[in-house]
Structures are given as C-alpha cells and as structure tokens.
From TrEMBL:
Biased composition (Basic and acidic residues): 146-164
Organism per entry: Pseudoteredinibacter isoporae
Residue ranges with Low complexity bias: 165-179
Protein name, entry field: Lipoprotein
Keyword Signal recorded: yes
Positions with biased composition (Gly residues): 64-79
Keyword line: Signal
Signal peptide: 1-27
Disordered: region residues: 62-90, 146-179
Record keyword Nucleotide-binding present: no
Amino acid sequence: MIQTRKRFRTLKLASAFLMVLFLVACSSQPKGPEVTERLVTHISEDGSKRFQYVMTMQRKKGAGRGGFKGGGKGMGGKGMANRGGQSGGKNRTDMIAQMQEKMKARGIEAMEAKLDETEFCRDGYMVLSEQFTMARLKINGECKESATEDDKKNFPNVSKHFEHSSSAYSMPSSLPDSP
C-alpha cells in the first residue's frame, strides 16, 4: 500500500514536471515562416488578362525545425508512443500529404483573396499551370473576361517577361523554380 502511494506520488510529480517542460518548450517555439506573395499581371494586345501568383514561405533566420532539441528518448516502451498505431511510415506519409493539401488550399485562398482585392479577374479565372512544394506555390492563370480600358489603365504591363504567342505563354524567368 505504501509502495503504491509512493508510485502514485512519483507519477504525479513526473507528470507535473513533463507538463511544465512542455509548456516551456511551446512558449519558446520560433515564430512561423515568413510568407511573401506576388501577383504579376499582364494584359495582351488581344485583351486577354493573364497573371502569375507566387506565394513563398521562408523560415526566419535562426529558426529551427521546432519541437524538442535532441528528440528525447521516449518512455521505454511503456508510454503512449504507439497509441493507435500512429508511428508507422505510411501514417507519416499520409499526414504529410494532408498537410501539403491544406497548405495548397490556403495558398489558393490567398490568391483568390488577392485577385478579389485587386479586382483583376472579376468573372473568375482558369488555371493554366501550377507548381506546389512545401515552401512555394506558383499558379499561372487567365481571367475569364477580357480587359476593359480601365483594366489597361489600372494594370499596366510592367513585366517584360510575359511573352504571348499563339502557342506558348512563357513565365517570368526572374522567378526561381526552387525556394
């Protein structure tokens, strides 16, 4: 009976210590990545309106990967490390894929908000191409409506990198393909 009380007290102290350790670790986590976005527009002579939206996420200087340093050693197989079979490689791959899909969806939402804010594509858009990595989203698109005279005034072609021909639409070469 006395040993049971000692074990219970030791377990309570260990739990309290781990909770404090967890709270300290969470409070010292680095801030999230710095997000930059760019919308480049181009209006062709025939009135078609094209755009390139790029969202890049970069870690701030000095920011680590997060989590505990050193990774810890677990609880000797007696803890909850394998709770529900969550430690397998397939589950991790699925989790990463889900995270990528969520990030892509947020990037598309941000692009649509930028298009709404600028009123560049008032009647919607078509995606011509897209590239997505964990750190970068790049979407090339074309508005469904043709440019008005106001559009031509509000969105002057400042980038010489957009070239239009009957068969190709080349993107700015100044944008790197990797983060």
